[in-house]
Design a protein that fits this description.
Aspartate Aminotransferase, domain 2, binds pyridoxal-5'-phosphate, alpha/beta, about 350 residues, 2 domains, seven-stranded mixed sheet
C-alpha cells in the first residue's frame, strides 16, 4: 500500500491493477481478465462489449443487479424459471422463451453454484444467442476442473467485500473473445481509445490501485478461505442432515465449490419457514440472510410464464452465517438453533 502512495499512481490502469489481472490469469486460470469497479459494472460492460440488443433470457431468482445491468443497457430481461437443485437458470424454461427478439441468455451462477453450462451452451448455439454468465459469487469455482469463467461468451465476477475473495468493491469481466476484452478495457475508461479521444459511450468503471492491492493480497489466501468455509459447511450439513424441513444446497460432485454461501431451504410440507427461522436466529443474536426474498422481481422485466421454482425459493431460502474462519462452535450453535426453530 505504501508503495502505491509513494508511486503517486493511484488509478487509471496502473501497474498493481495489471499485476492483479495477471495473477487472476495465472492463479485462477481466467482468460482475458479486465477488472472493473464492481460486479454490476462488469456485467453491464460485458453486455455492452458484446453489443447485445433486444430481449435477454435470465433467471427469475437472482440479485437485482443482474436485471439492473441489463436495463442500464436498454435490454429487456425476460425471466425464466430456475431448476430446483441449485436454483440456477432452467435450460428448458429458458428454451421456451426464445423469440426472434432474443439476443442473449444471461445465466447466473447463483450462490456460486454453476449453472448448467453444457445445456445452456447447446441452447445458445441452437438459436445463435450470446451466452453471458453473471458469475458474481463464483470466484474460484471449477466445473470438471475448468474455471467457471471459461464458459460462454463472457463472465462477470464480483469482488465485493461480502464475497469469498474481494477488493472491497470490484469486479472483473473474463471472456474468450479478445475484441470483447479490449472493448471492456476501453468502456471502463470513458471509451477512450489509443489516441486519447472518446470513441464510444464508455463510463467510469475503473478499479483503482488500492483495490487491486487488496485483491492481490487476498488472492494468496483464497485456498485457505475456501477450505475453512468447506469445513464449516460440512458441519452444517452433518448437523442438519436428519432434519426433514431443512435442505442444504450442496455442490455437485463435478464441482470444486468455493462455498460462497450456506444456503438452506426451509419448508414443512408446503409451508415455508425461512421467515420464522430468520426471526428466531435474530432473537438469538445470529445474523442470517433472506437472499432474494423481496428482490427477485424487477421493474421492466417480463415474466411471460409462471416461475414456480423461483417463487418457492424466494419464500424458503435462508443463508446461514459462513466465512473462512468462522469458529466451528458457532456453526454448531447456529445449526442447533435452526433445528430447534423448525421443530
Ligand atoms: C448474482 C449477483 N450479481 C451481481 C452482483 C453485484 O455485484 P457487485 O456488488 O460487485 O456490484 C451480486 C452481488 O452480490 C450478485 O450476487
Amino acid at each position: 500500500m505504501e508503495g502505491i502512495w509513494a508511486s503517486g499512481r493511484l488509478t487509471n490502469d496502473g501497474p498493481v491493477l495489471r499485476r492483479f489481472e495477471a495473477a487472476l490469469h495465472k492463479d485462477l486460470g481466467w482468460d482475458n481478465v479486465a477488472a472493473t469497479s464492481s460486479g454490476t459494472m462488469a456485467l453491464q460492460l460485458a453486455c455492452r462489449a458484446l453489443q447485445l440488443d433486444g430481449e435477454v433470457i435470465t433467471p427469475a431468482f437472482t440479485f437485482p443487479a443482474t436485471l439492473q445491468a441489463l436495463r442500464w443497457n436498454g435490454l429487456v430481461p425476460v425471466l425464466a424459471d430456475v431448476e430446483p437443485r441449485w436454483l440456477t437458470l432452467d435450460p428448458a424454461s429458458a428454451a421456451a422463451l426464445v423469440t426472434p427478439r432474443t439476443c442473449a441468455i444471461v445465466a447466473v451462477h447463483t450462490f456460486g453454484h454453476p449453472a448448467d453450462v453444457a445445456a445452456l451452451q447447446l441452447l445458445a448455439s441452437r438459436y445463435g444467442l450470446a451466452l453471458v454468465y453473471d458469475a458474481a459469487p463464483a470466484v474460484g469455482v471449477r466445473v470438471d476442473g475448468v474455471p467457471v469463467t471459461a464458459f460462454g461468451d463472457a463472465s462477470a465476477v464480483s469482488f465485493h467485500a461480502t464475497k469469498v475473495m474481494h477488493t472491497i468493491e470490484g469486479g472483473a469481466v473474463c471472456t474468450p473473445h479478445d475484441d470483447a476484452a479490449e472493448a471492456v478495457r476501453r468502456l471502463r475508461n470513458f471509451g477512450l481509445g489509443e489516441s486519447g479521444g472518446a470513441q464510444e459511450y464508455g463510463t467510469n468503471a475503473k478499479m483503482n490501485e488500492l483495490q487491486a492491492a487488496v485483491g492481490l493480497s487476498l488472492l494468496r489466501t483464497l485456498d485457505v478461505e475456501v477450505a475453512g468455509r468447506a469445513q464449516a459447511a460440512a458441519v452444517y450439513r452433518e448437523l442438519l442432515k436428519d432434519v426433514s424441513s431443512v435442505r442444504l444446497l450442496w455442490p455437485a460432485d463435478t464441482v470444486n465449490s468455493n462455498h460462497a454461501y450456506a444456503v438452506a431451504r426451509l419448508r414443512a410440507g408446503t409451508a415455508p419457514l425461512a421467515d420464522k427461522v430468520s426471526v428466531f436466529l435474530d432473537r438469538h443474536g445470529v445474523d442470517s440472510r433472506r437472499y432474494f426474498s423481496q428482490q427477485y422481481r424487477s421493474k421492466g422485466a417480463l415474466c411471460p410464464s409462471p416461475t414456480p421454482v423461483a417463487d418457492a425459493a424466494a419464500e424458503d431460502v435462508l443463508c446461514l452465517p459462513l466465512w473462512g474462519d468462522i469458529p466451528l462452535a458457532t456453526v454448531e450453535r447456529v445449526g442447533r438453533l435452526v433445528a430447534e426453530a423448525v421443530a
